[in-house]
Task: inverse folding
């Protein structure tokens, strides 16, 4: 059940996406947990720390999300 906190989370995500827009988008690697930059609207990205390649989706502009491992 949504108790209202999810609305706040969405608001924070939008605020973050605003700042990422100017600095470039980042995702947290699921393997080594380091943040790494992702090119705008990239479909795939490789973690520079552990070299794992991920599929990327964009639920919001400037807010990349790791979908899973790229084949
Ligand atoms: Zn990594």
Result:
């Amino acid at each position: 059940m949504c108790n209202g906190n999810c609305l706040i989370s969405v608001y924070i995500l939008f605020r973050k996406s605003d700042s990422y827009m100017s600095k470039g988008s980042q995702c947290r690697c699921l393997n080594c947990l380091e943040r790494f930059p992702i090119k705008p609207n990239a479909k795939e990205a490789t973690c520079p720390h552990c070299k794992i390649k991920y599929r990327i989706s964009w639920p919001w502009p400037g807010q990349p999300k790791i979908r899973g491992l790229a084949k």
Observations:
- The pocket of zinc ion is lined by residues 29, 31-32, 34, 47, 49-50, 52 (CB under 6 Å).
